[in-house]
Specification:
- The chain has a four-stranded mixed sheet, with helices on both faces.
- The two termini are 28 Å apart.
- Strand 1, helix 3 and strand 2 form a beta-alpha-beta unit.
- The longest helix is centred in the first third of the chain and has 13 residues.
- 50% of the residues lie in helices and 14% in strands.
- Helix 3 packs parallel to helix 5.
- It is of the alpha+beta class.
Length: 122
């Protein structure tokens, strides 16, 4: 899969560091959680879909790490950094063994098919 990302050569050198640093802390926090946990759910307050994903994981007693960043009215800029990093435009962002599997409906499909259990080694 190839995703279109603006080539660094097409970004003026004067702004490259700004792009690199913009909300890098939130991306590093998620990367660290993904590296340290089998399952990570990244969500936001007021959005029902992260809650739905967590309920699905709770129903099968799957341990997970939950990270929450703001709400519809707050912290949207840092969340944009996560969207740019992953290429996934909605929340939750669910990672299983370091792989982005999508959102809550994608998780539900993997659970129903048995693929989630295979991914986590159950």
């Amino acid at each position: 899969m190839t995703r279109n990302i603006l080539d660094e050569a097409q970004i003026h050198p004067a702004i490259r560091q700004t792009i690199t640093d913009k909300h890098a802390d939130i991306v590093r926090e998620v990367q660290a959680a993904v590296a340290a946990n089998m399952v990570v759910v990244v969500g936001m307050r007021q959005n029902p879909f992260p809650k739905k994903a967590r309920k699905a994981l709770d129903a099968i007693a799957a341990p997970y790490k939950y990270l929450e960043y703001g709400s519809y009215l707050g912290a949207w800029k840092p969340r944009t950094a996560l969207k740019m990093w992953t290429g996934w435009s909605t929340f939750p962002m669910i990672f299983v063994k370091g792989t982005l599997i999508g959102g809550s409906s994608d998780l539900e499909k993997l659970i129903a098919s048995g693929e989630f259990a295979r991914m986590v080694g159950n």
